[in-house]
Amino acid sequence: xxxxxxxxxxxxxSNIFIKSERPRFWTGHGVVLGYQxxxxxxxxxxxxxALKRENKARRAGLRDAEYEGLSEDEKMIKGDKRPAFFYTT
Length: 89
Prior knowledge:
The protein has helices at 2-7, 9-16, 26-59, 72-77. It is mainly alpha-helical. It has one domain.
């Protein structure tokens, strides 16, 4: 997710590198650095709270219904989608 957001800088950077600022491009580099900082923090906070919410739903048993008819082996194959799996946040 963080990498995907960071790739949005390609769209922005094609418009913010001003020819008159050659060879340093202070505005362009500053904006790209700012975007990467904001998106890195934004992605980190988003994933943290999204995974906390998912863990809370699993603890409450809200994900158990879709796995009721499965054997233990079938549940293990599901990996991080199985209801007994909790994310580290």
